[in-house]
Design a protein that fits this description.
The structure is a single chain. By secondary structure, this protein is mostly beta strands. About 0% of the residues lie in helices and about 50% in strands. It is built from no helices and eleven strands. β7 and β8 form a beta hairpin.
Amino acid sequence: QVQLVESGGGLVQAGGSLTLSCAASGRTLSYGYMGWFRQAPGKKREFVAAISRSGGNTLYLDSVKGRFAISRDGARNTVYLQMNRLTSEDTAAYYCAVGFFLTAAAVREADRYSGWGQGTQVTVSS
């Protein structure tokens, strides 16, 4: 079991930046990928970004490429999502997730992840 705790959400003006953090504890040595998803009211949960355990592979939703950056600190078992040039379209609850047997082809699929954090709200005002 891996426990995930997100932090860093909040209210920000359009064009601003936020950094989300996801601290993992428990069985952290064997995961394949950690990902960030988001869900806006009335919408499906959407893949945002993922990073492999080695940090050598990262993937992004097309609409956040060039604006968001996912990174990890192995020593702290923490994954970050740096979000820049935020727009109202980025408003959502953001969730951290962990997947153990994921391949790069499957990291965009929420049902392939086996552990989730409680979520942190990001609200971008225009």
